Amino acid sequence: MDTPGPFDARRAAGLGYDIDPLSGSPSWMVPTRQDRPNLPIDSCPFCIGGIEAPDAYEVLAFPNRWPPFDDGRAEIVLYAPDHDASFADLAPEQARRVIDLWAERSRVLGARPDVDYVLVFENRGPEVGATIAHPHGQIYAFDMVPPAVGVEYAAITSTAFTPPSELVIATCGEWSAWVPPAAAWPYELLVAPADETPDLPSLTDHQRNDLATILRDVVARLDALFDSPMPFMMWFHQRPFDATDRPDLRIHAHIVPILRAPDTQRFVAAGELGSGVWFNPIAPAVAARHLRDVR
Ligand SMILES: [Zn+2]
Ligand SMILES: [Zn+2]
Predict the structure, then answer these.
(1) Cβ contact 63:75 at 8 Å
(2) Alpha-carbon span 137 to 98, nearest angstrom
(3) Phi, psi (5° rounding) for residue 139?
(4) Among candidates 18, 172, 48, 151, which has minimal Cα distance to 99?
(5) CA of 41 to the centre of ligand 1 (A)
(6) 254: CA distance to ligand 2 center in Å?
(7) Angle ∠(163,165,171) on CA atoms, nearest 5
């Protein structure tokens, strides 16, 4: 990708990505990430004293050493100094520190003139490419509003955040966690507050404590489901930081566990990628009952 091709106009204009001429999807070319290590060679870089965390910390955010894009717009967020901790076992005040850090980094990155969107996310487990076991998440700060956010905003209905009770697996304060009625993945979850809080920085003290509680509960349920740490992808959708008013957008977390049974991964196959239609082997109400009954 050294020589600009016919479709590289956006990258040539300094945007850093290409637009697929068939689908319109943006794609960043990041050959430098091929060089990143699969596993730390000797010791964990995220434990206190490690290369990324030389000093004592409770929670920590720092620039990703292997960023998909430049300018400090990719960060790592460490949830705890304890290498073997899971979000589910964090003390309530420690989980709250993580949420405060997500909110603070969203605020700081979102205030940059070159940032329109802040995606807070986690890949958990080697099955989804987490190369370091130490509990951590990531942040990507985009210079545009990513397509997935635009798709949701175009499609959102007034009932999107009012789940049927049979799909709810847990509640805490004004937060609920539920299996979406058209879930694409067997144990997929949404976590959202009942009111229209738009982003992580706007969460109140109570909302932050309750989010900490419900996230710990949800992760514990997922781990208990097959009696083993559940590999999952999690991301927060929040309002874009591009100064456009979008009153319908509400902070929410998507959680996509990738197992459908013990040690059995759910693969997305050609019939799904090729059609854009999902075929979910477990009915949402059944998945919700499993997750309600597991603890
Ligand atoms: Zn560690
Ligand atoms: Zn969303």
Answers:
(1) yes
(2) 10
(3) -135, 130
(4) 172
(5) 13
(6) 6
(7) 80
Sequence-ordered strand ranges (E) for the chain: 17-19, 26-28, 60-63, 74-78, 117-124, 136-142, 168-172, 175-178, 189-193, 232-237, 252-257, 259-261, 264-265
Distance in angstroms (rounded) separating the CA atoms of residues 205 and 192: 16
Residues 193-221 pLDDT 10s? 999 999 999 999 999 999 999 999 999 99
Provide the token pair at 224.
């208990």
Quickly list H helices, 203-269. Answer: 205-225
What is the whole-number distance in angstroms between the Cα of residue 241 and the centre of ligand 1? 32
Query: Percent of the chain beyond pLDDT 70?
Result: 92
Q: Quick one: CA dihedral 152, 154, 155, 158, positive or negative?
A: positive
Ligand closest to the CA atom of residue 250: 2
Question: The pTM is what?
Answer: 0.92
pLDDT at 188 over 60: yes
Do 152 and 138 touch, CB atoms closer than 8 A?
no
Phi, psi angle pair for 31, to nearest 5°: -60, -25
In the structure, ligand 2 is a single-atom ion and the residues with CB under 5 Å from it are: 152, 237
Q: Using an 8 Å Cβ cutoff, are 82 and 63 in contact?
A: no
- Centre of ligand 2 to C-alpha 16, Å, is 25
Mean pLDDT of 220-243: 96
* CA 25 and chain centroid, separation: 20
Q: What are the helix and strand counts (H, E) for the chain?
A: 6, 13
**Do residues 109 and 115 make contact, with C-beta atoms less than 8 angstroms apart?**
yes
In a 13 Å sphere around the CA of 142, the CA atoms on its Cβ side amount to 20
Give per-residue burial for 126-145: e unless 16+ CB within 10 Å, then b.
Answer: eebebebbbbbbbbbbbbbb
| CA distance linking residue 37 with residue 89, whole number of Å | 28
